[in-house]
């Protein structure tokens, strides 16, 4: 019986009279489902249709926000309503109850007018309905506390952010650690070099000296690997990268400085004819810049510049100009033959693999190559494609180095620097 009364409370007849009594068709809160505001509806020539639409919208909104439920297993029923203001909610609830009771009274009167016996039966069988307490404006809003909503929203935002971050990380095809580098090419990664703050991109000297101070063990390991991979005298190694701007020149300078510091006689050759960064570095030093060579004869070794004890630099761009991209055939062999008696190691700063065939052309002259890859910038597939395009030089690559790594982000990928190097960096 209680459920029957609940359905009567929600009946269309009761709710329709509530809409009419309270004039909810003029309340914007009950007309949000309409496509146009009431003012536009009033100007509509088909007034009947617009009034009917407003009435249906108000009726639907009233029914959706009205809550009627039985209290446990008792015969008590609570009626509540969600509105923009507490006063409006209380007014609507009281109107629903009042009209419901009026409708019950009319039904009883209609039955008694036809037959008094039916009224007696109706009163004996039908439940009585009375208001225990009228609705009053609530002292607080319905629903969960605002603090709980804020916490839930914060947790949802945090979870969404974490999910997006994990998705972006999974879709990131760039190389972030030594193990990934070794997996991509199958070559040993000789070290991960961090990005140095407060060092300009064009300051190869400052970056190389900072590299030597901080990453001395890494450079010495690379130098030892180069010597072990070479059988002839002098040891010859080309330093290249996948793309320009990945720091191959800086690592070539640092490798040359580290080898010279270990007592080796080192010749560093700038073979990047269209962008001779090493030549600009040498020219910026206090020593005189290298002079152009007259021809590609072995005597070109006489144009070297001494940078420090055991380290000489030879610029090929000074003799052939920055407009030239390809090294003349046989020039590198002539230089290496001339350097045989004077140097223990020759390091050649080569153009990137993507710049042209210079690395492939030098494969017959050099003992091996070292590939430099920029951390978190170069995609794995691009590294594979560039490596496969190296031709005869491909089997001569002895290792790789990751350059310009972000130390804070590196920790996420499991790369941890030794405590000794942390002290050096801090100093």
Q: Supply the CATH class of the largest domain.
A: Alpha Beta
CATH architectural grouping of the largest domain: 3-Layer(aba) Sandwich
Report the β-strand fraction as a percent range: 5-15%
Number of helices: 18
Approximate shape: rod-shaped
Q: What is the typical, i.e. mean, pLDDT? A: 76
Q: Give the neighbour order of strands across the main sheet.
A: 3-10-9-4-8-5-7-6
Count of individual beta strands: 10
CATH superfamily heading of the largest domain: P-loop containing nucleotide triphosphate hydrolases
Kindly report how far apart the N and C termini lie: 85 Å
Radius of gyration: 43 Å
Describe the structure concisely.
The chain has 427 residues and is α/β, with parallel strands linked by helices. It is built from 18 helices and 10 strands.
Describe this structure in words.
With 427 residues, this protein is of the alpha/beta class. The chain folds into two domains: 2-139, no CATH class; 170-426, Rossmann fold (3-Layer(aba) Sandwich). The chain contains 18 helices and ten strands. It has helices at 2-9, 12-22, 38-42, 47-65, 86-114, 116-125, 146-171, 178-185, 204-214, 216-229, 248-261, 277-284, 317-320, 331-339, 358-361, 380-388, 407-410, 419-426, and strands spanning 66-70, 77-81, 189-194, 235-241, 266-270, 305-308, 311-315, 345-349, 368-374, 397-405. It has an eight-stranded mixed beta sheet, sandwiched between helices. The protein has a two-stranded antiparallel sheet with strand order 1-2. A hairpin with a 2-residue loop joins strand 6 (305-308) and strand 7 (311-315). It is rod-shaped. The model is unreliable at 36-41, 286-300 and 417-427 (pLDDT under 50).
